[in-house]
Amino acid sequence: IAARFDCALPSVWAVLKQIKVILKKTTSFREQKPEKVSEFLDILDNLKDLPVLYIDETGINRYLYRPYAGAPRGEKVYDKISGRRFERTNEVEQKLNGSFLIRYIDSQIRE
Question: Which domain of life, per UniProt (predicted)?
Answer without folding.
Answer: Bacteria
